[in-house]
Write a structure and sequence with these properties.
InterPro entries: Cof, HAD-like_sf, HAD-SF_hydro_IIB, HAD_sf. α1 packs parallel to α9. The chain is built from 9 helices and 14 strands. The N and C termini lie close together (about 10 Å). The chain is globular, with a radius of gyration of 18 Å. It folds into 2 domains: about 150 residues, HAD superfamily/HAD-like (Rossmann fold, 3-Layer(aba) Sandwich), CATH 3.40.50.1000; about 100 residues, 2-Layer Sandwich (Hypothetical Protein, Haloacid Dehalogenase-like Hydrolase, Chain: A, domain 2), CATH 3.30.1240. By secondary structure, the chain is an alpha/beta fold. An 8-stranded mixed β-sheet has the order 5-4-3-2-1-12-13-14.
């Protein structure tokens, strides 16, 4: 039986049910049981600090969950401090923003304090509504804030065209029918986890992770034991070492129980 020293959980549709906007009691119970066994619990989310769901904030505070990896590993909090951060260069942000605006593609900038959208339109509204995304409108947000990743809002048929606009050192990761992350090609939850484990003195093979989306691919590949949710993207299920039940079917609790960890 694999017994990790630390377990990383994605938030949306892993721990947190987006549609119901809650964390199941069974997931909370699972976290408590892990901690009682001396297994550290951590968060690894694509969300930024400013857009964490209230239920997730309460969970982190109530259970003392630490560390917390946010913005796909680009912004890491540990013991009340920023352990590591990977901001994008301002000239890169300005160039990508100009190219997207010229193509008529709306976009946003993700800082520690805000999600700042260039303008308001239907594709952004659809993606923001599903996440319950608070935001401001500021097309030059990078002038005053460190920006860790961008978002862009367009349907999948524009994927190739947008990829061709971007510098080679950037990548896109789709998280919604109309929403993608734009970040450094080396950036991922796995890079953030590596920084955390170095600080903790834990080996990558001693870590476990649960996820459901395209932004969890590197994370599940990197850790010693990657678990995909039953509601996960097919690509994630293929590379996971275990597929647990769906998030809305007590997947976290049932998966950990079936693995003999709780």
């Amino acid at each position: 039986m694999f017994v990790p020293k630390i377990v990383f959980f994605d938030i949306d549709d892993t721990l947190y049910l987006k549609r119901q906007r809650l964390i199941p009691d069974s997931a909370r119970d699972a976290i408590r049981r892990l901690q009682e066994k001396g297994i550290r619990v951590a968060i690894a989310s694509g969300r930024s600090p400013s857009v964490l769901p209230e239920a997730a904030k309460q969970l982190i505070d109530e259970y003392g969950i630490d560390p917390v990896l946010l913005i796909n590993g680009q912004y890491i909090r540990y013991q009340g401090e920023v352990l590591k951060a990977f901001p994008m260069q301002r000239q890169v942000l300005a160039g990508v923003s100009a190219a997207l605006e010229q193509a008529g593609i709306n976009h946003a900038f993700v800082s520690a304090n805000d999600v700042a959208v260039a303008w308001e339109e239907a594709h952004f509204a659809a993606a923001a509504a599903e996440l319950g995304l608070p935001y401001i409108v500021d097309k030059r947000h990078y002038d005053t804030q460190e920006v860790y990743q961008m978002l862009a809002f367009y349907p999948p048929e524009y994927d190739k065209a947008v990829a061709a606009m971007l510098p080679a050192h950037l990548k896109t990761v789709r998280w919604h029918q109309y929403g993608v992350d734009i970040l450094d090609a080396a950036g991922s939850k796995a890079r953030g986890i590596a920084a955390v484990l170095q600080a903790l003195g834990v080996q990558m093979e001693e870590a476990m992770a649960f996820g459901d989306g395209a932004n969890d691919v590197e994370m599940l590949q990197a850790v010693g034991f990657g678990v995909a949710m039953g509601n996960a993207a097919p690509e994630l299920k293929r590379l996971a070492k275990y597929v647990c039940p769906r998030a809305d079917e007590d997947g976290i609790f049932r998966g950990l129980r079936d693995l003999g960890m709780i």
